[in-house]
Specification:
Radius of gyration: 27 Å
Number of strands: 4
Order of helices and strands: HHHHHHHHHHEHHEEHE
Low-confidence stretches: 183-194, 202-261
Shape: elongated
Structural class: alpha+beta
Number of helices: 13
Helix content: 40-55%
Length: about 375
């Protein structure tokens, strides 16, 4: 796990603990009174979390566990704080109402910060995942609105009771809401930069993110029909113009003969496509998009240090625009080897037909002889 990810997760955990503490008013003991308002606020928040989690595809849900956990804990703590407010109102305890209202206002900002922090960490792997994570924030906000419905004056006195802290919390809340809005409204055709975690894992041979752009997916729809007829193990001739940075002994050149130029195309084995399993898009679109850019995959074999044989299964996630949001190896002989690392990175340069689902992708197996 990278240092920025660890910092975001620690910040999210700290904000979540602070939010639960202040929302539930754990600093003091007081009576609870469960009213229809309290029950409705809890049900609305928990139902919102359940709907958001249920609408996510199974392969995404594991990454949404932290936003779900922080949002659910915040909703339950909010229900406790709301029950204390109703009990204080019944007992005509004005100071306690003010304290609990202030706690709910401050705790809501902390809860939003917790969900926002872990959702921001998800954006390093997929913008789609980050959008789903941000959405859990609004389930907490909906519960708070129910608690203060027709009671806006209690929220007002709570804000006044916070004093200078209220201005800081207002800035934090506004920044989180703005960030959520920008995440949801992000332009679909923005270039996809290579994740920093991938750059660190694959080393100095990986090109910088500024050089990695996504191919437009406009031509893929027209190509899909032709791609359907491509055999599952189709091979593509190697491109002779791909430079090889390392020296290689040429065939027939003797034991002492070396060259710093590219390996001749005739000596580069052909890469083959195996099984393709699509999710949220047509298999023909997935296979066609890969086949159309097979030269980029084949270029990996032109590097002498990538001359390994075996299979590699890659999981590719595609966003709504057809850009590759995430690419990672999931199995095969080439996992962790230079050739496997090179092949995984080439998918970030590909574009596919825009899928109908926000959680589309495919698994593909590549074979190197």
């Amino acid at each position: 796990m990278s240092t920025p990810s660890m910092l975001l997760l620690c910040a999210g955990a700290a904000a979540s603990l602070a939010g639960v503490w202040t929302l539930a008013g754990l600093s003091e003991g007081s009576a609870l009174r469960v009213t229809p308002r309290v029950v409705l606020a809890a049900i609305a928040g928990l139902l919102g979390d359940a709907v958001l989690y249920g609408r996510a595809s199974p392969d995404v849900r594991a990454e949404l566990s932290l936003p779900l956990l922080f949002a659910t804990a915040s909703v339950l703590a909010l229900a406790v704080g709301a029950a204390k407010i109703d009990a204080a109102l019944e007992d005509n305890d004005g100071p306690l109402v003010v304290r609990r209202a202030a706690g709910i206002v401050a705790g809501t900002a902390c809860a939003m910060a917790a969900v926002g922090a872990v959702s921001l960490d998800l954006s390093s792997s997929s913008l789609t995942h980050a959008r789903l994570g941000w959405a859990f924030m609004f389930a907490v906000v909906a519960s708070v609105l129910i608690v203060f419905a027709q009671r806006a004056r209690y929220a007002g006195v709570g804000v006044l009771a916070l004093g200078r802290q209220a201005s800081i919390l207002a800035v934090v809340g506004a920044a989180l809401l703005a960030g959520a809005r920008l995440t949801i409204a992000a332009p679909p055709h923005a270039p996809i930069a290579l994740p920093s975690s991938e750059l660190a894992r694959f080393g100095a041979d990986v090109p910088p993110p500024s050089e990695v752009t996504t191919e437009p997916a406009d031509a893929d729809s027209a190509f899909a029909a032709a791609a359907a007829s491509v055999p599952a193990a189709a091979s593509v001739p190697a491109a002779a113009s791909v430079p090889a940075p390392a020296s290689a002994a040429l065939a027939g050149g003797g034991s002492g003969s070396t060259s710093t130029g590219p390996i001749p195309a005739a000596t580069v084995p052909a890469l083959a496509i195996g099984n393709v399993t699509a999710r949220g898009l047509l298999e023909a679109d997935a296979r066609g998009g890969v086949t159309r850019r097979m030269d980029r995959l084949q270029a990996c074999l032109a590097n002498p240090k990538n001359r390994q044989s075996g299979e590699l299964t890659i999981k590719v996630n595609i966003d709504a625009s057809g850009s590759v949001a995430n690419s990672k190896p999931t199995g095969g002989d080439l996992v962790g080897k230079p050739l496997g690392n090179c092949l995984v990175l080439q998918f970030y340069k590909m574009g596919f037909a825009a899928p109908a689902s926000d959680n589309a992708g495919f698994d593909i197996t590549l074979r190197a002889p």
